[in-house]
Amino acid sequence: MKSRANRRKLRNFFIHKDLQRPMIVAHLAYLLYVLVAIIATVLSPYYTDIFATGDLWVKHFSANMFIVLLERLALVSLFIVVISFFHFVLFTHKFCGPLVNIGHTIARVSESDFTRKIYLRRGDFLKNEAKQINVMMEALSNSIEIIKRENHLLLEDIEDSIQTYGKQTEFDAKLKTFQDRANRCRVQLDDFQLIGDSANDTDTGQHQHIVSDNPLSANKCL
Question: Where are the domains of the chain?
Answer without folding.
Answer: 17-114, 131-221
